[in-house]
Amino acid sequence: MTRITIPIGPQHPALKEPLSFLLTVEGERIVDSALRIGYVHRGIERICQNRNYVQNVHVVERICGICSHIHTTTYCQGVEALLGLQVPLRALYLRTLLGELERIHSHMLWLGVLAENIGFTTIFMYAWRDRETVLDIMEEFSGGRVAHAVNVIGGVRIDVDEAQVDSILARLDELEQQIEILLGVIQHERTFQARTRGVGHLSVEQVRRYCVVGPTARASGVNVDMRRDAPYAAYDWLDFRVITAEEGDVWARTMVRVLETIESLHMCRQLLAELPEGPLAVRAPRRVPPGEVVSRGEAPRGELVYYIRSDGSDSPARVKIRTPTLTTLITLPDQLRGVNTADVPAVLAGVDLCIACADR
Amino acid sequence: MNDWLSASFALFIFPGFGFLFVCALAFQWIDRRVAARLQGRIGPPWFQPLADFIKLMAKEDILPTGAHEWACAALPMVSLATVLTAALYIPVGGQAASAFEGDLIVVLFLLSIPALACFLAGWLSVGVYSVVGGNRSLLQYFSYEVPFLMALSGPAILSGSWSISRIAAQQAGATWMVFVQPLGFLLAIVGLIGKLKRSPFDIPKAKSEIVAGPLTEFSGRKLALWHLTLHIQTVVGLFLLVDVFLGGCSIGLAVPGVLVFTVKAVLILLALSVASVLYARLRIDQLANLGWRVLAPLALAQMLTTMWIGVR
Q1: By CA distance, what is A196's nearest residue in B?
Q2: Partner A, chain B 123-182, Cβ-Cβ below 8 Å
């Protein structure tokens, strides 16, 4: 059978960010694929070395347009550890709250992208419409829909009052109803399952070999979650379930993410109910004592790792960022081998790529 | 002179090209608006389809190097011509521009030409997405066409005529075919969705997979003609179903036949709009499975039953 080469990207309707695939196709079946990344490399790690610690909070916030808050949280945590700062409890709770809101927003965005990629425009429209609720909450809280600028080294910058807490709680209830509706549609719509079941399969061995993290790993039955395994911020005081599935395909990833969204809603309620009183931040010195630290957080896409080395000056000697998307990117050639070309968008959407994060 | 005038009127104004063009734009707007409302959106204003058409007609017309220019210019025109020709034999509000015994077969044949033209357009415009899309449109054609043909043959067998005008006229005052053959009507609608490449069977032009399929490399006037072909094909397909299954313009009330006829067509259109927002797009192998394992046997059973009843 003759082989043809189909380019997917750097610009393609299935991709929201630039990434390039060269698919070698026999008929409609993919036999080989070549991946190319780096189209949105901005040299953020180098930029961090030229700015001081305080400025870097704003630099790392701009790594990602979806999960900006977890980047600043993980970065600030690292610097706070180097400084030996004790962050006030209220600040930890507010950080966690925003982190969970961000997870809801990221997962709903992802659901929309997946639905659009498999030609289910209605779920795309509904998911993105309901996602606005979270964006509104975040905007009222911080003033920004995606870049919040809430974290500072030593705590947070913005507080919530009683009225805001009530209004957020009311809207979370509405949102939960909407998500339940979406969940019902996904579980009962046969065409949705026909397009996602058995597509983009990753086994437990593959997940372990490629160090895949986050919902993609959990959908393959690997029970990892930084929030439980290495609790940071306020996760130690929270009661939550880690959602896993066994199938390891796009369908399992969908279920894991949608159920995680509902779990995040419960966590937001807990955080708001138990919000402790107290100061928002402690003062942090400008210069950081020499040393190195690894800070980890659970981004919506999985474990995010920051390595920060200080030489005693007011700017870091090295900042190394390992984003969760990098681990899923390298599984893609494996996932794509043997699938139908029509399933490429589903596979690409299924692992929830954040190219801007991966390229930095 | 008078004959010539009325023939021109029938050809160019009503029920000919002018009426079809207006219906194509109006139906497109209704479809987009309804789908938008169902998806929690607002939808375009009424003049959007016309604005889109004018804009595309005015845009620069480019083709990639290596594309077969002559064929790429001819194919959209040929497709448009075939659907317009097909429309001549479909009575709108009781009157067709032309009719003869066996025109149902001719119309079905003419309506299938755009699918083949799409396939050729995909191959001759050399883009890689076009080639894949062209292949898919041909594969899709093989999946929906057979059930569609068999579904439409039921009413013809029952009426004892292969003329659309006669099938429609026979239902006036009698039971509509949709009540005699509900399964056939359903199959015909599914077949029509496949023919029109509408969601969830928009496989040949799946945006997130192959950009715009066979039409990826087309632009300007040629693309406008392709779109117009599709929208007139929609109208013609709906009119065909109304004539064959919903008794044409007959309702027994003192309202103009054309109005009744158009309302029936819009009702089927609404069903298509609802279907387009309810499902995820199928894969081409899933469509082939559906076509040959579900639709074709059902259509065959329906046809054989009809023949048995017809013979008795």
Answers
A1: B280
A2: 128-129, 131-132
